[in-house]
Amino acid sequence: MMRYESYWDKLLFDYKLIHSKSVKEIYSDIPYFMNKNVYKQFKYTAGIINNVALKIKQGISLEYKDYREYLGNFQYLDDILLLKRENIPVFWARYDGFIGQDSVFYAELNYDKPCAQRECMVAEEMLQGYKNINEDFTLKFKQGFYGIKEKYYADKPVNIAILVDPAHYEEAHLALLFQEKLKRQDLNFILAGADNFIVEKDEVRVFEKKIDIILRLFPTEFLYEISDFKEILRLFDEEKLLILNDPRDIIMQCKNLYSYLWKLIKNDDTRLSTLEKEIISKVLPYTEPLTDENINFAMLDKDRYVIKPVYGRYSEDVFIGVMHTEDEWIQSLEYIKSKMQEKNFLLQHFKEQEEDISYYYNGSYRIPAKCFGNFGIYLCNNEVIGACVRWNSTYLTSEGETWFTPIGIEDDSVECIKTGLELQSFLDKLVFEAQFTGFNIDEKEYLSLDIGTISEQAFSELKQATVALNKIFIKTRDYVIENLNIFKEILSIEGLEDTIKREKTKEFTFIGRLDWIMDSYGRWKLLEINSETPAGICEATYVEQILEEQYKEKLCNEESIGNMFDKDSNVSNTINVGEDNINYPKVTFNKTSRINDMLVKNIVKQGKKIINDYNIKNPIIGFVSLTYYEDWVTTNAIMRMFKEDDTCRDNSYIYGNINDLVVEDDGVYLYGTKLDFIFRYYPLDWLLDEEDENLKRLLNAINDKVITLNPASTIISQSKAFFVIIYELIKHGFYSEDEMKNIERYIPFTTFDYDELNTNEFVIKPLLGREGQAVQPSYLLRSIPDEDIIFQERIFQKNTGKEGGFMVFGVFITGEEFSGIYTRIGDEVTTKYCKFQVMRSRL
Questions:
Q1: pTM score, two decimals?
Q2: Residue ranges in 593-750 assigned as alpha helix (H)
Q3: Which one of 189, 196, 207, 383 is most buried, counting C-beta atoms within 10 A?
Q4: Cα 628 to the chain's mean position, in Å?
Q5: Is the dihedral of CA 32, 38, 40, 43 positive or negative?
Q6: How far apart are CA 181 and CA 189, in angstroms?
Q7: Is pLDDT above 50 for 588?
Q8: Where are the domains of the chain?
Q9: What pLDDT is attached to residue 23?
């Protein structure tokens, strides 16, 4: 077996894949996983549409002869329609499918010369044994071809001409691939262009060899470019030659098939069954032939329409209104009008696709991009045998800009339920009851009014992994404290060691947050620990509760049959097709439970535990932060939890600006009140650089004159170097085998030494940075910053946040306990410009 320096070399030599116009962007190895139910929709509806298309092709001269007027005209069309030979099985076909807002749909059907077989084969190899949507694709593809050959030629050796236009490198390279993949002792393949065919003595010959089968990657409407084509058709009709696909498949390739089917639906024509009408109306956009009259509809409402040629290829002359400005649209319509005498166009309703995120490869790095997926649903001998996905940054799949990735199939771990809530209707509740006004961040929406759900399996693993890693973190923290003089510089916490050593509590955190993501394969990965000042507490408690109450109320008012909050409900909207029921939409209202139901109680319980470690009865606690909005809201929410808890009513609470703390010889005061404890929503390391005299003195007062409720030792795990220490301690046998496995499974490799990564794909992070500040993936780096940073293995994320970004699962921990989740959706590096979404667990 040949060895290659890179997988891209293998694609070139094993799959004949060359680069697109954008060098090396044609393929990316970061896979996409389609929801099983969505693929079920594609498979089932493709089967229904294929059956309808076959019926129309077979009945074109009788039952469906009124379809003839929709086919337009091109040279040899009448000759093709007059063929008497039995219809040859459809060797290959590809439907261009898309995931829409309420169902899948097909922009067009490719029966004539479908490509993308290579993409399916690459995906098959890339995901061998792992949720593979294309399992056995190559085998089924070969068997499909061999079956047709054997039906007409038995075991007789045959010559096969693969017909391509050499000017189209995609087809030429596919021909090379087919020649190699379909190779068999009884099959001799010859690559040929239109000029290479001649007919002599009732034989088709190419390079002096008699041809038995023409396997064509050449459009039917351009077959007139082949000399003697009319004679070739005659020989095909007389069963002296086999052409794949059958030229009559142009009947199904013609995009006006959509117009014809919609006419049948509008007329309630009995030639279509009720089920066929229902499926067609869901998955084929409404279409009609473009005329001088209806083009005015497109003129008046561009965002509603798509105009495309009846026999167009490669997205040529396809005009999507929403992609145009008004002036561009007027220019495009003028162009279309000038071409309407030369070729037929159709007018189609625009259907909105789901936007997704995929990583494309630029030759050096994988870069995330918002894009749209064109899912090629591949049929062979009337069976769906696999699928590919081609990504593009716009609705239009452009040959020079698209890229493809491996594609798998799975049950979604995270799904999104559209609530249909309107913020204005309960704004006052959020302001007055939740004391929350952070609806936007710099004019960007912050609150998602939809609700996410996470599968029981994924949620269970997340909780177990959190608890297991917490124990490892505590063990590591204790070792670091014992050797603080060695580790203080590594952690960048010099000057804080005395404050840490004065601490009496052994608790790991008061409230901490572990930021988890799912990688592209759906595996949990922990990016970092926010031990000191975790955001999102108000959102995960008070805001979440109001959002859920509003949704419950909305469902009750609508008398909904499906209620995610009803423990007895598991209702889905289905089309009944016997054993092959398919769901519309893909997300159903399953039974769920609230993840954060214990968060408030656990926060209070953990706070009381730390207070008890210092034996102070009925303490006075100051909740302090800067007046930055997020800090203020979070601090206020935590204080409310204590004030509203019956077991904490004997304590005293005061809330204020950390800059108003006054450090005296006898203690620390806030607005004249002497404090026993402070909860500081303020990083401990910031006190090292403070210019304010009182805050400078506060550092020496902590754990002496006043106790910090969030332990000072949390700064150890807050430092990004904490993961570096963990990986270094692995080398010295510090952890048990199970601990080591959990570390390597869930924590990305983290180091100070770039060379240890053995890859150029990494992320740099400052040791004590927050809110994603100065965190950069390597593809954005121009140089390595001259500061204390760590290098962390880059994790390619699954797009679990369908609001146009990646989802981070901020798992709250109180001490060692899993206590809740604050989910937010944002860019690959999550900053303050993100969106909060409620998350529930599916039962």
A1: 0.91
A2: 599-613, 629-643, 693-701, 714-718, 721-731, 737-746
A3: 189
A4: 33
A5: negative
A6: 11
A7: no
A8: 29-147+247-285+368-410, 157-244, 287-350
A9: 47
